[in-house]
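One record is kept unedited as follows:
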Amino acid sequence: MKLKKIASLMLAGIMAVSMLAGCNGKNTTNENPGQTEEPTTSNVTQAVLGKTSAALQKKLSVNSDTKLDEAVAFAAANNNGTTYVTTLTELAANNPFVVDASTIMKGGDIKPYTADPDTWDFDRVEEDAIYWTMFAVNRTKSDEWIENELADWLDEELVNQFADNVQHSNFEYSIRVTMTDCTGYNILGDGKDSASSVIIGVAITCDDLTDNH
């Protein structure tokens, strides 16, 4: 009887260890070191582009350059001013968000920031160029709402720019869209959570196919 009791206790101990190992294994099996998840920003870009018109989707591809991601993240994390935003709003060039982002975005191919993409003129681009702008919106708006608004904005601003395919035959165009929730700074000034707003960046890259790079 004593041997049976000891055997029963040992079996119960083995089962308990097995159950713990099984729970722990469930958490680790989803972490595959050889398989990285697609960057969130790439997903956002694809989501926005997928909501645009067929004409724009035909002209633009998804850009993998992460400079815009860094710029928007830096801007959202390092501002202390107050801006009141209730709808998707383009940020002025002197907005603290934009000033911070510009320190990262600056470079030879980067066109000066403009809050008015009506001034973007792809017909006059003769070399590699990156046009970019930024928006802010209340975090009460969902990602899907933001994506829909951006898609409508892109169609309105860009479709006519690509009406003449011959004129743009020497260039390839790609887009990057990134969204970052504010941290440590309440853009709404409403006393709510410090991450109650979102900063959005949009960059269009014009790649000259004739410069042998």
